[in-house]
Amino acid sequence: xxxxxxxxxxxxxxxxxxxxxxxxxxxxxxxxxxxxxxxxxxxxxxxxxxxxxxxxxxxxxxxxxxxxxxxxxxxxxxxxxxxxxxxxxxxxxxxxxxxxxxxxxxxxxxxxxxxxxxxxxxxxxxxxxxxxxxxxxxxxxxxxxxxxxxxxxxxxxxxxxxxxxxxxxxxxxxxxxxxxxxxxxxxxxxxxxxxxxxxxxxxxxxxxxxxxxxxxxxxxxxxxxxxxxxxxxxxxxxxxxxxxxxxxxxxxxxxxxxxxxxxxxxxxxxxxxxxxxxxxxxxxxxxxxxxxxxxxxxxxxxxxxxxxxxxxxxxxxxxxxxxxxxxxxxxxxxxxxxxxxxxxxxxxxxxxxxxxxxxxxxxxxxxxxxxxxxxxxxxxxxxxxxxxxxxxxxxxxxxxxxxxxxxxxxxxxxxxxxxxxxxxxxxxxxxxxxxxxxxxxxxxxxxxxxxxxxxxxxxxxxxxxxxxxxxxxxxxxxxxxxxxx
Length: 485
Ligand code: ADP
Known about the structure:
Blueprint: E1 8-13, H1 25-38, E2 42-49, H2 52-55, E3 61-66, E4 74-81, E5 84-90, H3 92-95, H4 113-128, E6 139-143, H5 150-157, E7 165-170, E8 178-179, E9 200-201, E10 204-206, H6 207-214, E11 217-220, H7 223-228, H8 239-244, E12 249-251, H9 281-292, E13 301-308, H10 314-326, E14 330-337, H11 339-350, E15 356-360, H12 364-373, E16 376-379, H13 389-395, E17 399-403, H14 406-411, H15 417-422, E18 428-430, H16 435-449, H17 452-464, H18 470-483
Parallel strand pairs: 1-2, 1-6, 2-5, 6-7, 7-11, 11-12, 13-14, 13-16, 14-15, 16-17, 17-18
Antiparallel strand pairs: 3-4, 4-5, 8-10, 9-10
Helix pairs in contact: 4-5, 9-12, 10-11, 10-16
The structure holds adenosine-5'-diphosphate.
Adenosine-5'-diphosphate (ADP) binds at residues 24-26, 28, 172, 305-307, 334-336, 362-364, 367, 386-389.
């Protein structure tokens, strides 16, 4: 327990952290939240796996060595990268593999993912037990299924050792970390943990399930998503359990790192700008037109920066492309994901040369230029725990067009007559997440874009929205203090 006036110590546990390793929004959150919490006297150290990308150039001191750690030797390294204080779990037999953290070169899950991330949770648990003098956390804050076994190790393997409070944050309940029952014997837990009030989940092993049941607090990344996941439609099989944990469940909307995402200083832009110099965005639009091979035009240039999956509504966009082009808009898409969707997008683009362009791949710098040069960003997700690209859009005067779900509903104010008159509208929302719904929203966008005053108003209110971590970091700090008074 922290003494009065002493800062609380939080061990954040995650499989990704920006700028070291990132496949999605999780990394942005775990990379930015520690600095925001430091300002509130919460000391955060993050435990991440020692992937090659994390170890490269990392000069950490050895804080612990563990023999026979999930099938091989492991070292816990302690050090920092930029402003991030880290523990890195250096276990080559688990993490010394190229490419994506979760998938092999052919796109299949690594066959030992259960052990790889059980090891991450167990290392966090040992830090929680106080085995590493340098940092004894009051709270262990795990992110997603990869860190969800921490409460289970504390519960079933603790044997009377110290027990920090636990928080589990759900960034996307679609990823549940479910494995065959035979996996259980390799996790180093006693047989009594393979029960419904533990890891057992419909006969399998459920990492996220165990975390949801056993963590002291469960959070998700927006208030609306917290409401959605307790319903059968949104809960992906976990809704009953989440209802049961109702008192422990809350939604805290993500912020963004407003230094990394600052149009006034962004090194990836052709020309920097701020809310008083929005005309400068044109230079970024020209740069995009050149890079994407798009012809200039009077209608809005609409971008997408996304994993290409049905969750993100990419199939809807594929079908809506012809109608969107007919409205006078142009599109620039950056993404990668499902092969069939990648191909369908490329095929749709080939029907509209110079009006629709698609780049398959992952390109952090280009994603900044897209936000700084496009007029709008389309995010037609079927469900969206928080979503970050619409927040970057708000900050960059790139008007978001979003489906009314999850964090998208919570962060964008729809441009209707009342909100436009009051000067608070920041984007376009649509409730009908279908091809027609997307086209109708784009038609509203094109109309707004043709009204320069209304358009500037949308951009300015968006850029004036508080998308920083300040408010949400306070909510996390309050939560930690409630758990460890
Ligand atoms: P999710 O985590 O579900 O993929 P989010 O909107 O929360 O969705 O976060 C996605 C993050 O990944 C954002 O920072 C976005 O800019 C980035 N991103 C997604 N796809 C790409 C890409 N192809 N190139 C660069 N950045 C991308």
